[in-house]
Amino acid sequence: MARVLKHNVTLRQTLTSPVYSFLAGEELPDWADGLVGDHLFTETEKEPVFKRVRKTGLPSAPEVPEEKKELKVPGRSAAKAKWVQFLTDAGVEFPEDASRDDLVEIAEKAMPDLEI
């Protein structure tokens, strides 16, 4: 049987040690077991509801998928730098020594539905 806390508890080992907080539904480490009375525990056969993930006791934030930004297609006569930036943002590979016209052609081949 696991000894799981019924209430939130804040403890320290000595007067000069750091303060530790434990949440309801969490198991106490062995060093803290003698510092807490039996009235704060609930006897259960289940696993604790809360599992400590980090030293802080907070679960890590869920990963948020990165939003794809809308790419603005430069005009056919736009500067070479704008075409380089567009192809880089779109993830299209191109040779470094390509001219502006070559970059436009590469964009048209890589993205056939592109309206320039």
Characterization of the model:
- There is one protein chain.
- By secondary structure, the protein is of the alpha+beta class.
- The protein has two domains: 2-44, no CATH class; 70-116.
- The protein is 19% helix and 12% strand.
- The protein is built from two helices and four strands; from the N terminus they run E-E-E-E-H-H.
- It is rod-shaped and about 80 Å long.
- 9% of the residues are buried.
- The model has no long low-confidence stretch (mean pLDDT 79).
Which of globular, elongated, flat, extended, rod-shaped describes the shape?
rod-shaped
Helix content: 10-25%
Number of helices: 2
Q: Which regions have little confidence, pLDDT < 50, spanning 5+ residues? A: none
Please describe the structure with a list of short key phrases separated by commas or semicolons:
116 residues; alpha+beta; 2 domains; 2 helices; 12% strand; rod-shaped
List the helices and strands and how they pair.
Elements: E1 2-5, E2 9-11, E3 20-22, E4 41-44, H1 80-90, H2 100-110
Antiparallel strand pairs: 1-4, 2-3
